[in-house]
């Protein structure tokens, strides 16, 4: 390392921008392979851990987390789920994931906990991370020696490297850096949001329940046997301040119907927020020495619980490609990364879009479109083949 007090500079094989689950998991897998990566994160560790997101892990995700060595708490605290329920206009259909997929299941374990486990591991192994790094900028990605600059405590740092990975989420700078370099984007925004609450009350059911009701979608989920996560579809223009806890519980109960409502245990919310729903894909995922991963490259509406799982498959593909690049001196993997990841991303986008379309109330829908929603559910109820397709996608397509 070459540094002066005024203009510190350093060198790492890889610079990862963003310490969300994508950046931390990639950092972990590279560290295990003996590849040296620096992570630059704009926020503080507490801020990163304060974000509440979904919590359903595919078996493939659990396998990658196991390979990364962060599966201990996940195995003791994660809740295996063999199925989930769809409740459409009062009719219930259980999707038996295990039976329909030849034994596959999902694990309910909060994304915040995955992030915490990865952070703890990174701290324990002493791998390099800079939190509260401001003004991160990426330079010379078309050259074999790109570099990244950032400001920490008022001092500008320069990090040279071989590879830069943008794991900086939907609002990060990596994708913006290549906006005029042939990046193509595909997007759908949905005309509603999800109002979610977290409460320290036992879940109303041991499995997740996805509800389609004339008043709008609802979801009954959980983080543990003592902590529940519930959502109701709301207007995009709505404000969380309009929703007292009592109003939320009343609305949830109306949508889930009397049989489930009887089991909803209410209590004070410990978090309450509104999130918009979006489908988004950027192509390609490689620009010279810069690679896009996770939410920096794609967003799915949360209905299929695919966001984190898709980030993990990107990371798996890119980490093996980078192992090939650094340890075997072969570019074959990094040349293939974009096409390989996009193939799986588009299938997950399709699934998330179809679950969203099936289960939400669309005010703009014509009578024909409403009948199509109903026919889709009727097909699911009557066709094991249709249920198998749903189950196969929910437990996760092969990585
Ligand atoms: N410089 C450095 N860090 C940045 C910058 C920047 N300019 N911009 C954003 N970041 C950081 C954010 O503060 C955040 O911690 O990048 C991180 C990105 O993390 P996530 O948004 O969690 O994205 P990712 O790691 O890809 O996680 C994917 O998160 O949103 C869910 O559904 C998604 O579950 C999926 C998972
Ligand atoms: C959640 O528990 O937050 C959750 C679960 C399943 C989803 C979305 C969110 O599809």
Topology, pairings included?
Elements: E1 9-11, E2 14-17, H1 21-32, E3 37-40, H2 45-49, E4 56-57, H3 59-67, H4 72-77, E5 79-81, E6 84-88, E7 91-95, H5 97-100, E8 106-108, H6 111-125, E9 129-130, E10 134-139, E11 147-152, E12 155-160, E13 163-166, H7 174-177, E14 184-199, E15 209-212, E16 218-224, E17 227-234, H8 245-256, H9 258-261, E18 269-283, E19 286-287, E20 290-292, E21 298-299, H10 307-327, H11 332-359, H12 367-382, H13 384-395
Parallel strand pairs: 1-12, 2-3, 2-13, 3-9, 6-15, 13-20
Antiparallel strand pairs: 4-8, 5-8, 6-7, 10-11, 11-12, 14-17, 14-18, 15-16, 16-17, 18-21, 19-20
Helix pairs in contact: 1-6, 1-10, 10-11, 12-13
The protein binds adenosine-5-diphosphoribose (APR) and P-hydroxybenzoic acid.
P-hydroxybenzoic acid binds next to β16.
Describe the 3D structure.
The structure is a single chain. By secondary structure, this protein is α/β, with parallel strands linked by helices. It has 2 domains: 9-54 and 111-186 and 278-350, FAD/NAD(P)-binding domain; 81-108 and 191-277 and 355-395, 2-Layer Sandwich (D-Amino Acid Oxidase, Chain A, domain 2), CATH 3.30.9. Helix content is 37%, strand content 28%. It contains 13 helices and 21 strands. The protein has helices at residues 21-32, 45-49, 59-67, 72-77, 97-100, 111-125, 174-177, 245-256, 258-261, 307-327, 332-359, 367-382, 384-395; strands spanning 9-11, 14-17, 37-40, 56-57, 79-81, 84-88, 91-95, 106-108, 129-130, 134-139, 147-152, 155-160, 163-166, 184-199, 209-212, 218-224, 227-234, 269-283, 286-287, 290-292, 298-299. Strands 7-6-15-16-17-14-18-21 form an 8-stranded mixed sheet. A 6-stranded mixed sheet has the order 9-3-2-13-20-19. Helix 1 (21-32) packs parallel to helix 10 (307-327). Residues 54-56, 208, 219, 221, 229, 302-303, 305 line the site of P-hydroxybenzoic acid.
